[in-house]
Task: inverse folding
């Protein structure tokens, strides 16, 4: 999923607001420092997701048979290869509802 820097910053504000409203959370660091760490972490995760996406697309494209993007077969392979890449990275997949 691609998010602009602005959307990532906006999301970090939502997270900080939620933490501020939670009585079980106590801030030891400055809120803006924590918010910036959240932005950095989110952007890191998004970069990693883009790398996984590129690897999966490359793997599908390397098949002997041409598989058209958007086809049922392509979607099935994409999900399978994506899950494999995440598993290699030690990330679990949340089941779709």
Result:
């Amino acid at each position: 999923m691609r998010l602009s820097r602005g959307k990532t910053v906006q999301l970090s504000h939502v997270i900080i607001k939620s933490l501020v409203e939670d009585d079980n959370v106590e801030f030891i660091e400055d809120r803006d420092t924590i918010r910036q760490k959240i932005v950095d972490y989110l952007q890191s995760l998004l970069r990693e997701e883009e790398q996984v996406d590129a690897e999966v697309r490359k793997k599908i494209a390397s098949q002997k048979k041409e598989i058209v993007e958007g086809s049922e077969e392509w979607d099935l392979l994409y999900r399978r290869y994506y899950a494999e890449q995440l598993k290699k990275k030690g990330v679990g997949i949340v089941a779709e509802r």
User: Anything to note?
Assistant: The CA atoms of residues 55 and 85 lie 8 Å apart. The chain has a mean pLDDT of 90. The radius of gyration is 18 Å. The helical segments are 5-21, 31-61, 72-88.
